[in-house]
Amino acid sequence: MKMATQLRDAPAGLRFLISMGNKCFPRLRLNRDLWYKSLVLVLTFMAYTCYHMNRKPISVFKNVINRNCSDLVPPPGQDIDPNDDTWCDWAPFDQEGSDGLLGALDSAFLFAYALAMFASGFVAERVNLRYFLAMGMMLSGIASYLFGLARFLDIHHLSYFVIVQVFGGIVQTSGWPGVVTVVGNWFGKSKRGFIFGVWNSHTSLGNILGTTLAGYYVERDWGLSFMMPGLVMGICGLVIFMFLAPHPVNVGCGRPTHLQESSRLLQPDGTSLSGDRPHKAIGFLGALRIPGVIEFSMSLFFSKLVSYTFLYWLPKYIKTATSLSPRQSADLSTLFDVGGIIGGIMAGVISDYSGMSATTCSGMFILTVPMLFMYQAYGNENMGTNILLLMLCGLLVNGPYALITTAISAELGTHHSLEGNSRALATVTAIIDGTGSIGAAIGPFVAGLVAPYGWNNVFYILMGANIMALLFLCRIVVAENQRFLRTRRGTWTA
């Protein structure tokens, strides 16, 4: 009876799983808190892997819808004019300036994502996150499926692709505030950088899986490059609906430290023990007043500009700069994300050890500038050099991006200035990631406009963006180092 009471708010799939486990292994005694936390990490990791997996196919699609078809063998059974060198392309992207049209598609998705993100954080603070994530994943899968459906329905209207991209951008905003808030609900501040660093590898893993899956189909049928990831996304959304417990109280578990402190300040009806007003979900302006939110938001604006330019254009750049095929270019581009996984974990570990998250990010921003120059100048001399420099670029570009969007956002969302109000995490996360997403929208769009005039110009823009990301953190870096020196002096004095 006690177990049933504890699980009354748990999703049906989770209750069934626990019931079957008790029947099959009646003598097995598990650490319930650890078991649930592990399940939450796995489910949220899977969820955001799917979100990024569905963003990646368009970068692979760019390599096959505008190319010289005279070098290709027409498929059997098709009556194709031998003088037609555009038979393998797809209108309206089969014309001069197609990079600009593709950049516009990227921006349609990313600007819709950025603007809707601010509203998404507001909604996420006020609804059941299991429903929020499950519905968002299913709708995101539908958006990806609709893009690929254009191949089978022979749709060539630019407006169709733009509308699908806008729809996809809006529904994808359910992902980040949702998963970060769920993980923040379950885990305290101890080793948060390391936990989030490992967990945040879902971003890079999603990119790798999306690239690999899209690359498998792209030269045979690019429609399936979108439809198959969309199908996987929808299925995983159903899994989230059936098994995710978004908060420890849903399954009768204890709360992490920062939420325990908050709960001790409140009556059961939500009012303060001292008679103050109830703690409500924080507003947009209130979140902006949290120290550090504006600085990290603007830093992420430029950091995400760089990361998403690589996400959307790297396979195209590799194909242009080398003699590799579209599929080979897509496969090679995944090494950037492999480096990103390492970079996210490194940034988290360094931040945990030093206690200086802004300084950790700034050090990586400084190293990124010469690394981007080296990759553009020497990356294509041979395959070994390309692989090494590409992974180092991924490590340095995605390290700060991962740290800001996870551990730092969670830290700011439970800042001591909130005086026990824990209902700010989704709003703060949405503000930081939404601001970063505006930069993510601008980067690929600018790359599409500038690339025809030389990819070296694109890399110069990315270097400048890294410098700007560094400058916005200068005040916090100075404060962190002053605090560190005071602590060291106190240690020496003692």
From TrEMBL:
The record, for InterPro entries, names:
MFS, MFS_dom, MFS_trans_sf, Sugar_P_transporter
Stated membrane topology is: Multi-pass membrane protein
Q: Which SUPFAM superfamilies match?
A: MFS general substrate transporter (SSF103473)
Where does it sit, as one GO cellular component term? Answer: membrane
Classify the source by domain of life.
Eukaryota
Keyword Ligase found:
no
- On whether Transmembrane helix is a keyword of this UniProt record, the answer is yes
What Pfam families does this protein's entry cite?
MFS_1 (PF07690)
Q: Where does the secretion signal sit in this chain? A: none
Q: Which UniProt keywords apply?
A: Membrane, Sugar transport, Transmembrane, Transmembrane helix, Transport
Annotated membrane-spanning segments are 34-54, 101-124, 131-153, 159-187, 194-218, 224-245, 293-314, 334-351, 358-375, 387-412, 424-446, 458-478
Q: Where in the cell is it found?
A: Membrane
Under what name is this protein listed? Answer: Sugar phosphate exchanger 3
Q: What is the protein's species of origin?
A: Thrips palmi (Melon thrips)
Its lineage opens with:
Eukaryota, Metazoa, Ecdysozoa, Arthropoda, Hexapoda
